[in-house]
User: Fold Coenzyme Q-binding protein COQ10 START domain-containing protein from Amphora coffeiformis.
Amino acid sequence: MRFRQSAVVCWTILHVLLFRGESFVLSANVPIAPPRREQFQPPPRLFSGRRNARRGVLFSQRGGAEERKNDANANNTPDKMPKNHIAVSSQIDLPFSAEIAFDAFSDLPRQSTWSPWLRSVEYIEEGSPVTKWTMKSILGISYSWNAVHTRLERPYLIEWESCQGLKNWGRVEFVPKDDDNTTTAMRLTLTFVAPRLVARFFRSKRNDNNEEGGLSHMVQTRIVGRTLRNFRKVVLTHDVPQKTQQEDKQELAVVLGPPHERYKSIVK
Assistant:
């Protein structure tokens, strides 16, 4: 019951973001308000000061990630962003390579299969880099916006931003955690432009340790975090090669040796 109430509050805030006088598009692609004539600001430089526990991986803006022995001087983004920007992020470890993760995430029409808040993602027209993102409907209303990739660096980095509708941008990073590239650290960051009152509510602190709580914490754990967990599950099921029963038998035979050798060992 508490989860449902939290979800309703989250959706309400997202609706406030959309009903802020900006131009946006309904599922019928009909403009509700004329767009403001202002230049869209590029995404801010986002850094993270947290390292991966296994290899000291530090996510950075320079594409992919870099390893540092000491990240104490890393920038703290929430305090340096404009007051009307809302940034939420989450991180997860993936049991497959960065190449597999990158190829799956960059297949945009598949986004709705792991995102709990997206109904569909589709290209505006064939050959166009612009995609239309449609949220799941609430109270009979479905919101959409157009977005385009701004940076693609296989297999480490994907960045995008909206070009019509709700102003937002995002980035996802894939960082190999071992030399044989069998595990990957994935970090997803989403940034929205909102009224300052809404942004202040999002950034409310919950304790003296300067830890973010309230709605921001809920979005990070229950929407962004859930998106990553669903992504890992979907890719493991559909993209990672699964060993067949015959392959398992062949590997077992190599370990045990030829049948006559196994018989000799049993007799002994």
